[in-house]
Design a protein that fits this description.
Layout (H helix, E strand, L loop, with lengths): L1 H6 L2 E5 L10 E2 L7 H7 L1 E10 L2 E10 L14 E5 L21 H14 L1 E3 L2 E7 L2 H5 L2 E5 L3 H10 L9 H12 L3 E5 L5 E4 L3 E2 L2 E2 L4 E4 L1 H11 L2 E2 L2 E2 L4 E6 L2 E7 L10 E4 L12 E7 L6 E3 L1 H9 L4 H17 L4 H10 L3 H9 L6 H16 L9 E3 L2 E8 L9 E7 L6 E3 L3 E7 L9 E5 L11 E4 L7 H4 L14 E5 L9 E2 L18 H10 L3 H17 L4 H14 L8 H4 L12 H15 L15 H5 L8 H14 L18 H8 L9 H4 L11 H5 L11 E5 L8 H11 L2 E9 L2 E7 L9 E2 L5 E6 L11 E3 L4 E5 L3 E6 L5 E7 L13 H13 L6 E5 L6 H7 L2 E5 L2 E7 L4 H15 L3 E2 L24 H7 L12 H13 L3 H16 L8 H14 L6 H4 L8 H9 L1 H10 L1 H4 L4 H10 L5 H14 L3 H12 ...
Parallel strand pairs: 2-6, 3-5, 10-18, 13-17, 22-27, 23-26, 29-42, 50-53, 51-52, 51-53
Antiparallel strand pairs: 1-4, 3-4, 5-8, 6-7, 7-8, 9-19, 11-12, 13-18, 14-15, 16-17, 16-19, 20-21, 22-28, 23-24, 23-27, 25-26, 25-28, 30-41, 31-32, 31-41, 32-34, 33-36, 34-35, 36-37, 37-38, 38-39, 39-40, 43-49, 44-45, 45-48, 46-47, 46-49, 47-48
Helix pairs in contact: 3-14, 9-18, 10-11, 15-16, 29-31, 30-31, 34-36, 34-37, 36-38, 37-40, 37-41, 38-40, 40-41, 45-46, 46-47, 47-48
């Protein structure tokens, strides 16, 4: 009675909640005494809930779930605080009169304030203690009656969490202590042994999976009182928590040493130590845990080829199962196991069905409710008897190969375990949103694994762990991704296609460089929200309705959902939030249809049985095609034979309706005795497809269509039957039989097979969805025809058939895959014949000779693959050369089951790629194909390559129109010819209607889009031939010409050197900035170091002194050589580091920069490997395919720099002009590496050359390196510093230190081990002490060098208020070293990590400000842009 009273207890302590609340102190008169709470293990539960616009605080009582964090505490000292239903509204109405809900920030602030303040109840103060990971998602936490200091000490006593670098990780690790688990026994650490993990290629195959000795397993079973069928039960797998370990342990008979209970792996250890030695069991492997299909699995199965009707049938059987649960003992036992009521199942076995029938009725009703009423429950819940929910464990014995598994389950018939073998199983785990989360494994039996029951054993070898392929999980028992896997061996549910498994990289969490406190955990709990999880799931379901789960949008949302499940904050791209409306084509979404059927069944409280409608018994043919007839097969044959005798028909015309394989030997003999002697008789019993004249047995063998258990019967053969009756016979077979195969030869090199597994009504468009299979049998094999030769149709496919047309199409007939129709006739040879018989015979002769065809066929071969289309060519209105039709008798269930099983198995050979690499088709305009009707005369003349049209140009606009038209039509040769024609006319002074300056302005404007015309300025000879003012005009724009030549250099290779030299010789001078811009362009666009070397050294270096005459020769030499070195280094790095990004992208013009460069935008798959692109990275785009009308055209390359990057989107500033067709084609993206360091060095070299005295006070020494050391300039360097030798340094080190104090430039040299790093650290410390108002920059050519100096400096620094900044352009190992330095050397030093990019953005203000406030800055670069970091 106490427990029932406690469970119903509720008292409201605050009627309303306002944001301004500052204290939470309550006194409840009727609250049960602490002693009663302790005796009954109930805790006080304070609930903040919102309902109907009002929010209130109430107190309830809840049963205390045991866990390690509350072990040893009194129940009265705990409070369970819940915010699950906390959705408050402001009490003051807004301007519109509504009570606005609190913002997320306001909710977070309120919860944080409450938790920091604590709750006072009955005069006792309670503070924030912690929560499990599942409580975090349900917004529930524990408060403890203790001070914050005592709580912190208690938490730290449970384990060492000091090395946790992120708040989220520390919260999750401490959350393990709060997860519900039954403490079974204390285990001394000496009883445990650490063993290594099995690792390969950055994957841990044994992640979270240890071993347990049989003796200890039996002891746990005894203490936990585990029993099934009234017998002691010892599980094979335990899910455990022990000190800092979590995961599962598997029974290992090899552990015979009585001193060792457990073998635990490194991957199981989540934190160190702890005083608690209790060994807790969270869960264990149980028998009879049946699996079920939920919404997610149904969607994925349907997308992978499982028929809609199959899923509906499974649900129908499930309702039959529920209806029988209270009537049949065996069904009742299965049902109780299915709903996780093992105690009732035991009662059923020990007593009788009557003893549990009332409980079963309630549970069935509850099961109906879960399908209709519960918003948070899966609507589809379909029991699959041939399935289990099993623990997944690793093969610690190493006997399984990749793709294999071991499954041994307890059978409900006799309670004995049996191993599955010689079959495939389908395996997945929840949550599963990607088709690749469903995987098939081949079940094998291994003696070494025979002791493992009611679990699935995965191999520890292969390219990737099996668990990681399914939702990216492991085996350690995270609540977010369960270690319980759904294992199914139901043949009907084996998908026809598998998808490549998705990748699930770990999310990045913000790292804290300071110690993580309980207040950080409190703030993390207050700010946590799982709203994104539901939002992403809803978006996913909306996109699934429109495009199916293999759509790129669904795969990206799957990646976001996975990150949400792991607790990471995510941002959904805007383009994924805009979901188009699904097509209204009459085909219901699979879940809608299942849910509607379930609703009808449950609402009517009646289970409807599926059944095929019968046919009219008077029609003999329809009678023979019936599936279920209450008489034997031989009786049907006798009945039909009697009908044949009366109607003067032949029995053999009906033989394809009969399943002769079920007849006895005598019945078969009587039947065959009525047939004429024929060589085709064996095909009536055997597989007639094996004797096909269109496909060989070897071709059939690839798809296992030759199998002896498939009894195909040939009903049409064009070699024996008239081809004119082909479609008539096809329409009849499609209408009468469930399984049909149409084989037709459409080309001498190609035969097609069309498998239709349902009845198709004549002259009606029938929805076939993804049920039809198409086979391609190319008879001349090439490497491009080896894949995708068997494909299913997709959802929304329809089929139409009558005596003159067969058409298979998707939604609309304009999107047809196969179209067969009657062919037109060339009657020229018989149209004048008067005799009808002669005309018919003559036409048949034209058919026999191939002049005419009875039927023609068109096939979209690209739906098989582009490779097959290229190999065969177009199949458009080809004549049907030969045809055959095969059927399976409707009552031949064995053949139909075998056929479906083998077809599904074969289709598994097709694995859909994770990211499609199929490029878009596009074409480019061609003068040959243009219709010039109605075009202006100028366009018509230039299209005929009449360049004299330019003599009649009277305005710059007309000239611009002509040149732009040529560029848009990609007529580069004609464009160059035209420009050269214009330049020669300017030289010869033949332009009379347009001003030469205007012509040149138009040409230079066109040059930006078509850099190839730069070459025209080198073909006309010396520029002095132009009038003086025009020559000056061209020279002033010589940089544009040089840029154009550089942009086309990769195509010309060495041929570009001469034109470059010519242009450079024509120029009289050049600014240093312009020279540096050209070298930078070389660094970004030239793809080979050899060509870049030739351009720089052979073309640019010789005239550099003449062109850069405003500076000293020494300065010019240093300037040029440094620029060349930076450029060549970057080109070499690109050649070594470049890597192609998986998948293709589409480019969209975003903006134009001031110089006319295009800024393009590209959307990326969120789940694509490679993650976000770094801002300022160098990338290279290349067209993924040539134009469809110019197959030999070279690919187009565009180099670019990343200017903006976010998840799923990036913008690029293009170095090359975009081709006119850039937005119609697909592009491959190559990542060429970061450009920020090279850019910074380019900028530093420029500044050193242009502003040497302002940016670097030792520029003369750096540049000259000659003459005596200059005296220090007191105005610049300050007064000399008195130096006292340090005891820790030797004589040469002290001399170096003294020189560093008083000289502007000091060079140290010494072999390894002589103390250079120690001396440098001493110099930094001395400068810091003597130059109090100055700041210090430390640079080096490598990250390791910077980190070594920083490490030595931090280990020697003696005061603790300095600020040390580590600046870098890359993350990588620098970040790890910073963490190591912070946490191991000087945790009290405030040291930060700042990532710097070269482009200025608003986000740069904070990092630069941080650097400005630093005392010591460590930077990895060879040179630095001092414009961002002044006054060191």
């Amino acid at each position: 009675m106490e427990k029932e009273r406690f469970a119903s207890y509720k008292h409201v302590v605050r009627q309303s909640i306002v944001f301004e609340d500052l204290e939470w102190s309550f006194h409840v008169p009727n609250l049960p005494k602490p002693r009663l709470l302790n005796d009954n293990l109930f805790v006080k539960s304070i609930v903040l809930a919102s309902e109907r616009g009002n929010s209130q605080i109430s107190i309830k009582l809840e049963k205390l779930n045991p866990n390690r964090a509350t072990q040893g505490l009194k129940a009265c000292d705990l409070i369970l605080l819940s915010f699950a239903a906390f959705r408050p509204r402001h009490v003051i109405p807004s301007e519109t009169g509504d009570l606005k809900p609190w913002t997320a920030r306001e909710c977070t602030a309120y919860i944080a304030r409450l938790l920091r303040t604590g709750v006072q109840l009955q005069g006792v103060h309670y503070n924030f203690y912690g929560h499990s990971n599942s409580q975090l998602k349900s917004r529930t936490c524990y408060l403890l009656a203790a001070s914050k200091e005592d709580i912190a000490k208690r938490v730290e006593s449970l384990g060492d969490f000091s090395k946790m670098k992120t708040v989220a990780k520390k919260t999750k690790r401490i959350g393990l202590l709060f997860s519900t688990a039954r403490a079974a026994v204390n285990v001394d650490p000496s009883r445990c042994e650490d063993i290594p993990d099995v690792e390969m290629d950055d994957y841990v195959f044994t992640d979270g999976c240890g071993l347990i000795s049989p003796r200890f397993a039996q002891e746990l079973s005894r203490r936990l009182r585990l029993a099934y069928r009234d017998k002691r039960y010892s599980p094979s797998v335990f899910q455990i928590r022990y000190r800092g370990y979590k995961g599962v342990v598997t029974l290992d008979p090899r552990m015979k040493d009585t001193s060792t209970f457990l073998q635990l792996r490194k991957s199981m250890k989540k934190f160190v130590g702890g005083d608690d030695l209790s060994f807790s069991v969270v869960d264990y492997a149980k028998p009879y845990v049946y699996g079920n299909l939920n919404d997610e699995v149904v969607i994925l199965l349907h997308s992978l080829g499982v028929f809609r009707q199959t899923l509906l049938q499974k649900q129908h059987k499930h309702f039959e199962f529920l209806a029988q649960a209270a009537e049949d003992p065996r069904t009742a036992f299965r049902f109780l196991c299915y709903v996780n009521k093992p105690e009732l199942a035991e009662k059923l076995l020990m007593q009788s069905l009557d003893s549990v029938r009332p409980e079963i009725a309630k549970l069935v009703k509850a099961e109906y409710g879960k399908m209709l009423n519960k918003r948070d429950e899966q609507k589809c819940r379909i029991l699959i008897p041939n399935s289990r929910l099993l623990f997944g464990v690793c093969d610690a014995w190493g006997v399984l190969k990749e793709g294999e598994c071991h499954v041994k389950v307890t059978m409900d018939e006799d309670g004995q375990p049996r191993a599955l073998k010689g079959m495939q199983v389908l395996v997945t785990r929840n949550p599963c949103l990607h088709p690749g989360d469903l995987q098939k494994f081949h079940v094998v039996e291994r003696p070494e694994l025979s002791h493992l029951v009611d679990c699935i054993v995965f191999p520890t070898r292969g390219r990737r762990p099996s668990a990681d392929m399914m939702s990216g999980g492991d085996l350690d028992g995270d609540t977010s991704k369960t270690i319980i896997v759904f294992v199914c061996w139901d043949r009907d549910l084996m998908p026809s296609t598998l998808s490549q498994p998705a990748l699930y990289p770990a999310g990045k969490e913000p790292v804290s460089f300071k110690a993580i406190t309980d207040d950080d955990r409190l703030q993390f709990f207050a700010g946590y929200s799982s709203a994104s999880l539901g939002r992403v799931k809803n978006l996913y379901l909306e996109w699934v309705r429109v495009k199916g789960p293999m759509a790129s949008e669904c795969q990206e949302l799957n990646r976001l959902f996975s990150q949400c499940v792991d607790g990471n904050r995510i941002e959904v791209p805007r383009r994924l939030e805009v979901v188009p409306k699904p097509k209204n084509d009459g085909t219901p979404f699979i879940l809608d249809e299942l849910h509607e059927r379930a609703k009808e069944t449950i609402t009517a409280d009646k289970i409807q049985r599926d059944g095929l409608e019968g046919y009219d018994f008077g029609a003999t043919e329809l009678l023979c095609s019936r599936d279920n007839i209450a008489i034997s097969e031989f009786e049907i044959i006798k009945l039909v034979f009697r009908w044949c005798r009366k109607n003067d028909a032949e029995l053999q015309d009906f033989l394809h309706f009969f399943d002769l394989n079920v007849l006895t030997a005598e019945e078969k003999a009587w039947t065959l005795s009525q047939l004429p002697a024929s060589s085709g008789v064996p095909s009536l019993v055997l597989n007639a497809l094996c004797s096909s004249s269109l496909v060989s047995e070897g071709e059939l063998r690839r798809f296992d269509l030759h199998h002896s258990n498939i009894h195909w019967k040939r009903v049409f053969d064009s070699s024996q039957d008239r081809m004119a009756t082909f479609l008539e016979e096809a329409a009849k077979s499609l209408e009468l039989f469930h399984r049909k195969l149409i084989v037709l030869r459409v080309d001498e090199r190609l035969t097609l097979g069309i498998y239709v597994p349902k009845k198709i009504a004549r002259s009606q468009e029938c929805l076939v969805d993804d049920r039809v299979r198409l086979f391609a049998f190319p008879h001349s094999q090439g490497s491009e025809t080896q894949s995708r030769l068997c494909l299913p149709t997709k959802v929304n496919y329809r089929l139409y058939s009558d005596e003159s047309t067969f058409q298979l199409f998707e939604s609309q007939r304009s999107n047809t895959w196969v179209h067969i129709r009657r062919g037109g006739s060339d009657d020229s040879t018989y149209r004048n014949m008067l005799n009808r018989g002669d005309r018919r015979r003559r036409r048949q002769e034209t058919v026999d000779t191939g002049q005419n065809f009875d039927f023609i066929v068109s096939v979209a071969l690209d739906k098989f693959s582009r490779g097959l289309q290229r190999h065969i060519g177009r199949v458009n209105r080809n004549g049907v050369l030969d045809a055959e039709i095969y059927v399976i008798t409707n009552r031949d269930l064995k053949s139909m089951e075998t056929l479906d099983l083998w077809l599904d198995y074969v289709d598994t050979e097709e694995r859909m790629p994770l990211i499609s690499d199929e490029p878009r088709e596009y074409s480019i305009p061609s003068l040959r194909s243009l219709d010039l009707t109605g075009e202006p005369e100028n366009i018509t003349r230039i299209a005929r390559k009449d360049v004299s049209v330019f003599d009649n140009i009277s305005s710059p606009n007309e000239l611009t129109q002509l040149l732009s038209w040529l560029y848009e039509k990609s007529e580069m040769d004609l464009l160059c010819e035209s420009v050269e024609y214009l330049l020669n006319h300017i030289i010869e002074d033949k332009l009379t209607k347009v001003v030469p300056e205007d012509v040149l302005e138009v040409v230079f404007s066109t040059l930006h889009a078509a850099p190839l015309i730069s070459l025209c300025f080198t073909r006309v000879g010396s520029w002095d031939q132009f009038p003086e003012d025009l020559a000056t005009y061209i020279r002033n724009r010589g940089l544009r010409i040089l840029r154009g030549l550089i942009l086309r250099a990769n195509e010309a290779q060495d041929l570009v050197l001469g034109p470059l030299k010519h242009v450079l010789s024509e120029l009289e001078s050049m600014s240093m900035n312009a020279f540096a811009d050209l070298v930078e362009l070389v660094a970004l666009t030239i793809r080979t170091p050899d060509l870049a070397l030739d351009i720089l050294l052979e073309c640019f270096e010789p005239p550099s002194t003449r062109l850069l005459s405003g500076a000293s020769p020494v300065m010019v030499g240093r300037f040029v050589h440094n620029l060349f070195g930076i450029a060549l280094d970057h080109i070499g790095e690109v050649a070594d580091q470049q890597r192609d990004r998986e998948g293709l992208v589409d480019l969209k013009l975003h903006d134009l920069e001031e110089d006319g460069s295009a800024v393009v935008e590209a959307a990326f798959r969120i789940d694509a490997p490679g993650g976000n692109l770094d801002t300022s990275a160098h990338v290279r785009f290349v067209t993924a395919s040539p134009p469809s009308n110019a197959a030999l055209r070279r690919p187009c390359f565009v180099d670019a720099l990343v200017t903006y990057s976010e998840k799923g989107l990036a913008r690029f500033s293009c170095c090359h002009p975009l081709p006119p067709y850039f937005d119609r084609c697909s592009w491959k993206l190559t990542y060429c590496g970061p450009f920020v360091t090279a850019k910074t060095m380019f900028t530093a070299v420029r500044r050193l050359a242009l502003e040497a005295d302002d940016c670097c006070l030792i520029s003369d020494q750096l540049l000259e390196m000659t003459g005596p050391d200059p005296d220090p300039n007191p105005a610049a360097w300050g007064a000399p510093i008195a130096y006292q030798p340090q005891a820790g340094l030797n004589e040469s080190q002290n001399a170096a230190l003294e020189a560093s104090m008083n000289q502007p430039l000091v060079c140290l040299w010494g072999p390894p081990g002589t103390g250079k790093t120690q001396t440098i650290a001493a110099v930094i410390t001395a400068l810091e002490q003597n130059l109090v108002d100055q700041r210090i920059l430390v640079t080096a050519p490598t990250h390791n060098a910077v980190d070594n100096v920083m490490r030595r400096y931090l280990s020697k620094a003696k005061h603790s208020k300095e600020q040390v900044i580590r600046v870098s352009t890359e993350v990588g190992d620098t970040f790890k070293n910073c963490r190591l330095l912070l946490y191991e050397l000087r945790p009290h030093v405030m040291s930060l990590y700042v990532k710097i990019t070269y482009n200025t953005t608003p986000g740069m203000a904070k990092p630069v400000g941080t650097v400005h406030n630093a005392i010591v800055v460590y930077q990895y670069v060879l040179s630095l842009d001092y414009s961002n970091f002044r006054n060191y």
